[in-house]
Automatic annotation (TrEMBL):
The keyword Signal does not apply. Belongs to the cysteine synthase/cystathionine beta-synthase family. Its EC number is 2.5.1.47. Keywords: Membrane, Mitochondrion, Mitochondrion outer membrane, Pyridoxal phosphate, Transferase, Transmembrane, Transmembrane helix. It catalyses: O-acetyl-L-serine + hydrogen sulfide = L-cysteine + acetate. It comes from the Eukaryota. One of its GO terms (cellular component) is mitochondrial outer membrane. It is a single-pass membrane protein. It holds the Pfam family PALP. Residues 44-347 form the Tryptophan synthase beta chain-like PALP domain. InterPro entries: Cys_Synth/Cystath_Beta-Synth, P-phosphate_BS, TrpB-like_PALP, TrpB-like_PALP_sf. PROSITE patterns: CYS_SYNTHASE. This is cysteine synthase. It comes from Volvox reticuliferus.
Amino acid sequence: MPRYSGPWTAALALALAAGAGATLCCLYLTTTKRINNEIRNGVLDLIGNTPLIRIASLSEETGCEILAKAEMLNPGGSVKDRVALQIVTEALQEGRLRPGALITEGTAGSTGVSLAMVAAALGCSCAITMPDDAAVEKANMIQAYGATVERVRPVSIVHPDHPVNVARRRATDTPGALFADQFENEANYRAHLKTGEEVWRQTGGRVHAFVSGAGTGGTIAGVSRSLKARNPRVRVFLIDPPGSSLFNKVKRGVMYTFEEAEGKRLRNPFDTITEGIGINRLTANFGRALIDDAFRGTDREAVEMAQYLLRNEGLWVGSSAAMNCVGAVKAARVLGPGHVVVTLLCDGGHRHLSKFHNPEYLAEMGLSPLSQGRGLAFVK
């Protein structure tokens, strides 16, 4: 019998020895109950229920209350911890994953970190495939959790060597392996139904708008459905980075972006320095989203916002979190003063040191920050 780890080990080992089989793989859910409100039972019990913080400078400059879920305080450092736990939990409950088995995924990095952490906590192995232009910090973190990383060149999703397709093949070729499939696995959006519940509880139901970017679409789908189920008048805004087609899908019903036009598509695409959001295909999770309107964001706005938050709030955030805050400002301007706008700080800046927070890299890209003070003129 392979070695397992975690507080559910004894019960599970006994069950397996007795022939109970894979259906008891979900025992960890019932044997890791919180001891009390002050003591958490293991790293997985730290996921979710993140603080909702007021971003004072943005609130004062816009006249709205701009609030953000501090998702970088999840134990794996990002909002993707919620998704990884939900995907693995459902697979265990349904008998599609057994202890010690392999979990694979294709990702720009953050989901890989979270899956590697969850796999380590539950005694599984993990193999992540990611594009070679993603920040190297993420690959290093994944490997630190004991997972393997394969970096491949960025290609279209229809190419067999796209990270998602490589990860899918690896799972198919490995008996008992689970392909997490974060883009199409609706456990993703279901994880964020709880995120929406938290937002509603933490605001006391006083929330007028939610703003988020979309990569897999799980966050904006789950939160939008959760909030609109409680108040259909809550407005949901998408913020979309360069090179993504989702803005036009929301605004015009057509998946199109200038960078995808004939004669514009690059062989090895590079459209934005913002990692983790933006996509040129519809996913099952995004199809669940209830979105009222959309904004475009630029790399310049994201870079300036990241420095703005450092300068005025001491908040060190990643690229998608910075873009979300750009979207929150745009939403506040549309709604007018006196409204409550909520967004997510997806991850922290520590996993973006080699690119998004690298002065030399930004200079090479012509994106060195220029703004100073508390003004928001850089948000167009």
